[in-house]
Design goal:
Blueprint lengths: L7 E5 L4 H12 L3 E6 L12 H10 L3 E6 L5 H15 L4 E4 L14 H27 L4 E6 L7 H4 L3 H21 L4 E7 L7 H13 L4 H12 L11 E3 H7 L30
Parallel strand pairs: 1-2, 1-4, 2-3, 4-5, 5-6, 6-7
Helix pairs in contact: 1-2, 1-8, 3-4, 4-6, 8-9
């Protein structure tokens, strides 16, 4: 049986893209997924709602609990946790996938945008960890996973996107520190980041159809998440900031081309990934 069988996993940003793919993948392993996102009703410009993801999970024979959540509001996080515990009686994992993006220099970043980046990225990661911690402390195999990059202080990764980089590196720092704080409590904490761009609404917004064609499907990242959660001893690597390719290679997956949106094109390297040409 899968180690994820009957585990209760929180997934933020679960209405579309990577979050939806993670939910479907983990549900197929027998996990009970709690779908957290602001998108309860259809958006005029973006596909997907938590209700639609829940129905897709149920079509696979899985169990889903959709909860409307703004990760900036701690009282909503507390209410979502209470509902989760009332429904399932436990929480085994937290995946913070929701995020805000704004790639612009200082002069083109209004303070309200700076605040949004930090509220949705770094602050939400901290708040979710803190509020979920008591429930995770009771889980036999608790894990936290955050979408955050390995920290690289090369100036070319920071200039032109200072606010965004500060907010995402803040999550990476949380992972490193929290892993040590929680090691004795046997709670594993990891960060995971795409080595190549993933075909999501954010990539569509930044680069249009060309970038989408030069990206991988969200299922690639979801399989890396699953591989991390299924490791025999997650604590052995707790605190690591992984690229999805690293995790899948270690799990024995080497054929990445089948995940490409267009297999005839080389996928773009994502931000903060050193090798090869990168998105700008």
């Amino acid at each position: 049986m899968s180690a994820l069988r009957d585990a209760v996993i929180w997934i933020t940003g679960a209405s579309r893209g990577i979050g939806r793919a993670i939910a479907l993948d983990l549900a197929a392993q027998g996990a009970r997924v709690v779908l957290l996102a602001k998108s309860e009703r259809p958006h005029p410009k973006l596909e997907g709602t938590i209700g639609e993801t829940a129905r897709a999970v149920e079509a696979l024979g899985g169990t889903a609990l959709p909860i409307k959540l703004d990760v900036r509001e701690e009282h909503e996080i507390e209410a979502a946790l209470a509902r989760t515990l009332e429904t399932f009686g436990r929480l085994d994992g937290l995946i913070h996938n929701a995020g805000a993006i704004h790639l612009a220099p200082l002069a083109e970043t209004p303070l309200r945008r700076f605040d949004l980046l930090h509220e949705v990225n770094a602050r939400a990661a901290f708040a979710l960890s803190q509020i979920c911690l008591p429930a995770l402390q009771r889980a036999p195999r608790a894990q936290m996973l955050f979408l955050a990059p390995p920290i690289d202080l090369a100036a070319h990764w920071i200039e032109g996107r200072i606010a965004y980089t500060m907010s995402k590196y803040g999550v990476s720092l949380l992972v490193r520190g929290l892993a040590e704080e929680l090691r004795s409590q046997r709670i594993a904490v990891h960060a995971l980041w795409p080595a190549r761009t993933i075909a999501t609404a954010a990539v569509q917004m930044l680069g249009g159809e060309e970038w989408m064609r030069r990206s991988r499907r969200p299922a690639f990242f979801a399989e890396a998440v699953r591989a991390l959660f299924l490791r025999p001893d997650p604590l052995a690597t707790s605190g690591r900031c992984y690229l999805d390719e690293e995790v899948l290679r270690e799990a024995g997956v080497h054929d990445f081309r089948r995940y490409a949106v267009d297999p005839t094109l080389e996928p773009l390297h994502d931000l903060y990934v050193a090798d090869g040409p990168s998105i700008t």
